[in-house]
Amino acid sequence: MVSHNMSWLKYPSRSEGQNSKDIIHSNDVIAMLMHVYIVLFVPIGLIAGIIILGILIKNCMHRALKKLDIVIFAHTISNIVLILLSFTVTTRPGYLKVSYFECGILSFFFNLSYFSSQYLRVLMVVSFFFSRHPPQNAFISKAHQNIRVCIGSVLTYALCTALIVTAMLGTVNNHEKTDCQLDPLFAWPEYEIIKFSLGFCIPSLAKLFFFILLLVKKTRTEIDPSRQSFTPYLTVFVISITMVICRLFYNVMLVYRALLKLYRRKLTIQTELTTNIAEIMLFSESCLSLLIILFLHKPCRSGLLHIVNKLTKVCRRRDGNNTFEIREFHTEVSSVPSENESHLNLD
After folding, report:
1. 8-state DSSP, 95
2. Global pTM?
3. Of 204, 186, 147, nearest to 10 (Cα)?
């Protein structure tokens, strides 16, 4: 039985007796990546998310939302929450200095957003599959017809999973201060193992299974695919591939950290740096997913083009008004007689 007291595990950059050159190099790298993420990815992700929500809310008011749009709406909210929680990396190369209790709350909301975004992508793939291949089971068919019930079930499952993972933090002295990361270092090894299994391994296998079924099963729509039916498939496929690429590295580091805890080995500077890079990659993936949805999902792309056209029309009108005012001004100036002309008139 492995001891669940993780107080012996410390961040190498916060400990004494480490090579100062390695610490400086590690701090420089993580600080540079943090600044690139905050300056480049965060604004793009937040702007894309706000535009997606605005377009989908407008479509909802016009009763033009489809099933996939509703799932994307919930997925966008979970990704925006992830981006907001990612502001905790602004302390890098340091860490948030909060109590164990506050760190546990941050970790809970982070995991809730993490699991919900993952499961909602699985729901996208399953819904797309059942829309082409209606289920034979009456219960599954009825549940598939009501997408809000499906989303509610997925979010409830994500909530239960986040509670289970948070219970693996196992803190006792909740009011003591600690160096906090959204995946706390003081968590039990079961934290990383359960999160890897339920948050990456099982959902990825489920998506792979349904993608293979989509490719294998031949229907009339697949034999003669139209662009309209292919576009939502492409959107779901691209954001799923992006998720696997970015979250794979993150989950590998989670498993590696669990093994270190199981074998009671301390972190190294290189491991700490790699873990922080993996965390930033995870947050960057949330920003990229929103950008992909904005440009690939047809209702969002159409709404974006409509916004751009409106803005260009407004700019053209302003330019036209300014040109008209300048022309009027020149006309008025030319109509005023000069001093010589006035003298001639007087003579």
Report:
1. -
2. 0.85
3. 186
